[in-house]
Amino acid sequence: MSVQSTTFTDRQALWKTLQQGDSGWDMVIVGGGIIGAGVLREAARRGIKALLVEQQDFASGTSSRSSKMVHGGLRYISHGDIKLTKDSLRERERLLQEVPGLIDRMGYFFTLKKGQFPGRFVFSMLLALYDWLAGIKNHRYFNKDSIQQQFSGINSHGLKGAMYYTDTVTDDARLVLRVLQDATEAGGVAVNYMKVESLLKTEGRVTGVVIKNIHSAEHVEIQCKSVVNATGAWADRLRNEVNSEKRIRPLRGSHLVLPMAKLPIDDALTLFHPVDKRPVFIFPWEGTTVVGTTDLDHSEDLDEEPVISKQELEYLLEAVAALFPQHSLSRDDIISTWSGVRPVIGSDDARDPSKERRDHAVWNDNGLVTVSGGKLTTFRLIALDAIAAAAETLGKKAVLESDDSIFKAPGITTNELNIEDKQWARRLIGRYGKHAKALIAEASDAERLPIENTAFCLAECRWAARNESVVHLDDLMLRRTRLGSILKSGGESLFPAIEKICAQELDWNAEVWKNELARYQEIWRTRYYLPRA
Ligand SMILES: Cc1cc2nc3c(=O)[nH]c(=O)nc-3n(C[C@H](O)[C@H](O)[C@H](O)COP(=O)(O)OP(=O)(O)OC[C@H]3O[C@@H](n4cnc5c(N)ncnc54)[C@H](O)[C@@H]3O)c2cc1C
User: Fold this and answer.
1) What is the mean pLDDT of the chain?
2) Could you read off the pLDDT of 171-213 as tens digits, one per residue?
3) Alpha-helical runs (H) found in 338-478
4) Which residue has a Cα nearest atom 49 of ligand 1?
5) Which CATH code is given to the segment(s) 22-63+173-247+357-399?
6) pLDDT confidence of residue 405
7) Beta bridge partners of 268
8) Rounded CA separation 420/209 (Å)
9) Is it the case that residue 398 has pLDDT exceeding 70?
């Protein structure tokens, strides 16, 4: 079977077109994380002929490694940044309406201890404002007894109670894929495993890019009206070709994934870490319990996948032990880990990493628009800022009013999927939009069954392999699905079934499978499991 993608660009066909010197591109977007995907979609909706180029897999940078919270940002409000909080909360509420099943509300309990600041009174005021800005009223106080009932085994020493409020949880990599799906359906082109090696300039102005095909090592030159650098933590690299200023401060954050059975929780819990008083979250995600995150300068090479350090692992286990001392969780209980690098816009005063602001910045240097920083939640607003910054070279199209929805309505209902579990149908529509129907219809009964205790099924693996530009096994196990992060040993028990799907959908023979499996297991063992001793 040929590798023909219905939702994404056929890589080989696109490469041929690029080699033939197809010009007429209005915009090249560098980087296939949430920001690049958002820019592609807003560009395509405005009739801007745009190409997005990602050096590795879509979402393989920071956008698959976040804490998965599409949140208003309690920290912004506590820093007095009302506008940013308000914008984030409005986007959050709209996302909840438009993509239920991909972005869902989650309860958060912020534990309060005796003598801790902020205490109940200040916290209640902050949350009243937080809810008011969002147009909801969900926050309330839970006393110690009810917290102990809600979270069995929680450390009651010094515990006063908890403030409850709601935010949301998502699958960040699927969020990127869903935005890319909307973008490609609006006429945008997105391709993975192609890298922008350098910028093309005419009389000092940026007029295009040099793209390297990662697999063939061939190069093409593409001329375009506008280049958008949406490379997140890598943003200084491309920008430094036109402006030597260094603005990105890469900050690493890591997470542990634990079996839900070992630490069962239905809502997120937050505590101030006993060592440095930073807030740490313990939250349910995809049938597991996740602990995160850390926040420290990342001085390693950005081209190496980030990995949790021994110190970070101990720090996170300490947080769990402080809250659940009786559970005696240790490194042997860990299913997997992940680390990501925040593209934070550094301040001049080299402050404590956790005190750096988290908003985005847009710069236009001789025609190169660089956009970096920010959050998942406000990706659409950030994308609009980038399009506005490109207006000087794009002309009228950049200022065209467009459809204001964040996501296009999928046009199907849960009933049309013909599956009994309506929650699951909702999840599939949230993730795959209108394609959820075909995903289910094209699968066998056996492939529709849930995989172990997860909400994933093999039908999704088949769909992704067939339609979502899967190039390597890690694309499938770590980003199209999260099976590699939530199942024991990187999902080893599934390998025979996945091998069969990859043979049928991607033409992988035994030799290719062997190589892909070795590559995936090496990545998983060294980057998604325990740190080196
Ligand atoms: C630990 C952690 C927790 C977080 N938690 C949250 C959270 O809960 N909620 C929230 O809203 N935000 C959170 N964030 C922040 C959020 O994840 C990031 O701000 C966001 O994902 C950044 O997206 P991006 O598109 O700018 O960058 P990325 O996702 O990194 O995308 C940039 C892409 O550019 C590609 N690239 C680089 N150079 C080139 C080149 N030359 N050619 C082609 N491609 C190139 C990279 O491979 C990469 O895929 C968190 C971040 C971290 C690290």
Assistant:
1) 93
2) 999 999 999 999 999 999 999 999 999 999 999 999 999 999 9
3) 379-389, 391-394, 396-399, 422-432, 436-441, 458-467, 473-474
4) 61
5) 3.50.50.60
6) 80
7) 108
8) 50
9) no
227: which strand partners? 28, 368
pTM: 0.96
Q: Which of 106, 177, 100, 105 is nearest to 428 (CA)?
A: 100
Is 483's pLDDT higher than 90?
yes
Angle at 359 between CA 234 and CA 309, to 5 degrees: 55
> Which of 324, 320, 293, 288 lies closest to 308, judged by CA?
293
Q: Concatenated DSSP letters for 204-238?
A: TEEEEEEEEETTT--EEEEEEEEEEE--GGGHHHH
Structural domain boundaries in the chain: 22-63+173-247+357-399, 250-343, 442-527
Reduced to 3 states (helix: H, G, I; strand: E, B; else coil), residue 363 is strand
Q: Domain 250-343 in CATH: superfamily?
A: D-Amino Acid Oxidase, subunit A, domain 2 (3.30.9.10)
Q: CB within 8 A of 484, min separation 6: which ones? A: 336, 474, 477, 478, 490, 491, 520, 524, 528
CA distances to 17, 58, 464, 503 from 6, rounded to whole Å, are 18, 16, 10, 19
Average pLDDT over residues 96-115: 95
Q: Which atom of ligand 1 is nearest to the CA of 31?
A: 34
Of all atoms in ligand 1, which is nearest to the CA of residue 196? Answer: 42
Q: On the CB side of 141, how many CA atoms lie within 13 Å of its CA? A: 14
Ligand 1 site-directed mutation target among 234, 236, 296, most atoms within 8 Å of CB: 234
Peptide bond into 454 cis (omega under 30): no
531 and 308 in contact (C-beta within 8 Å)?
yes
Q: How many CA atoms lie within 13 A of 70 on its CB side?
A: 32
- Cα distance between residue 523 and residue 513, in whole Å: 15
Three-state SS sequence of 321-335: HHHCHHHCCCHHHCC
Give the contacts of 271 (CB within 8 A, at least 6 positions apart).
111, 279, 280, 282, 319, 322, 323
- The β-bridge relationship of strands 103-113 and 268-272 is parallel
What is the arithmetic mean of pLDDT over 479-501?
A: 98
Report residue 374 as tokens: 């920010």
Q: Please list every protein residue whose CB sits less than 6 Å from any atom of ligand 1.
A: 30-36, 53-56, 60-63, 65-69, 71, 195-196, 230-234, 238, 253, 293, 340-343, 372, 374-377
